[in-house]
Write a structure and sequence with these properties.
By secondary structure, the chain is mainly α. It has a single domain, classed as Serine Threonine Protein Phosphatase 5, Tetratricopeptide repeat (Alpha Horseshoe), CATH 1.25.40. Helices cover 68% and strands 0% of the residues. The protein contains 14 helices and no strands. The protein has helices spanning 2-12, 42-54, 59-71, 75-88, 93-105, 109-121, 127-139, 143-156, 161-174, 177-189, 197-209, 213-220, 226-240, 245-250. Helix 6 (109-121) runs antiparallel to helix 7 (127-139) and helix 7 (127-139) packs antiparallel against helix 8 (143-156). It is globular, with a radius of gyration of 19 Å. It comes from Taklimakanibacter albus. This is Tetratricopeptide repeat protein.
């Protein structure tokens, strides 16, 4: 599974952030935030679902229901709820941003771009809308315009570690590993970046892809167990020793 994670990291930029790492926090496309941090509950979800179906225009109730569905891994149903909410609230910038970010995580780049465009055209000042737009453009291989959106996100949230991570990985996706390293190294050294282990794992990956395995090993060792570090390094060495390495790393996985 780690092999898939390492390859997917270069494909999906902000959406896959290294082997054995959690998906919340850094990427700017984080899960819904409705105030609840408890694990998903079937009973609570069913209760929320019943209440929302009786009042489908209720935005906060719908967001809470979508949040619970995501916690239970029912992502398709979660997207359906968010899609329904946008029909009732087509100009709600916060809702459009949340829905767009979730579509990015689901790999639905075209639809995410449409939804996020509406939020941005409506004058959204939420950096997450711009960062998520950059992510969906990266998914489509549109790296230069993606970085324009990351820069716009940084104007709204200067020094944001999540956006800088996305920016660095955009350069990596394009094959510009030196620039990716510069961005990720600077971001990792910032006060906010020092608290983000996945940012260091991305830096370790980019350094490793340049053949500097000992340096990459030292960076990765700050957060990962030794066996995972060695497995990742062995995989990178194997990949770089094969012909057409970059094509293998950037080909999208099936599904």
């Amino acid at each position: 599974m780690r092999r898939i994670s390492l390859a997917a990291l270069l494909v999906t930029s902000a959406l896959a952030l290294g082997a054995c790492q959690k998906k919340d926090g850094l990427d700017g496309v984080d899960p819904l935030t409705t105030g609840s941090t408890s694990p998903g509950s079937l009973k609570e979800t069913a209760k929320l679902g019943g209440r929302w179906q009786s009042d489908p225009k209720n935005l906060q109730l719908g967001l809470a229901y979508a949040d619970q569905l995501k916690k239970l891994g029912q992502n398709d149903q979660q997207l359906q709820v968010l899609g329904t909410l946008t029909q009732y609230h087509p100009n709600d910038q916060k809702l459009l941003t949340v829905y767009g970010r979730e579509l990015v995580q689901a790999g639905q780049a075209d639809q995410a771009q449409t939804v996020l465009s509406k939020a941005i055209e409506a004058g959204s000042s939420d950096w997450k809308a711009y960062s998520a737009m950059g992510s969906t453009l990266d998914q489509q291989g549109k790296y230069v315009p993606a970085r324009d959106y990351y820069q716009r996100a940084l104007k709204l949230s200067p020094g944001n570690a999540a956006v800088l991570n996305n920016l660095g990985m955009s350069y990596a996706l394009e094959g510009n590993l030196k620039q990716a390293e510069t961005v990720l190294k600077d971001a990792s050294a910032s006060p906010a970046g020092q608290k983000e282990p996945r940012l260091r794992q991305n830096l370790a990956l980019v350094v490793g892809l340049q053949g500097r395995f000992e340096e990459a090993r030292q960076i990765a060792s700050a957060d990962l167990p030794a066996d995972q570090v060695e497995e990742n390094m062995a995989y990178l060495q194997k990949m770089l020793a094969q012909p057409n390495t970059w094509q293998q790393l950037t080909d999208k996985p099936a599904g």
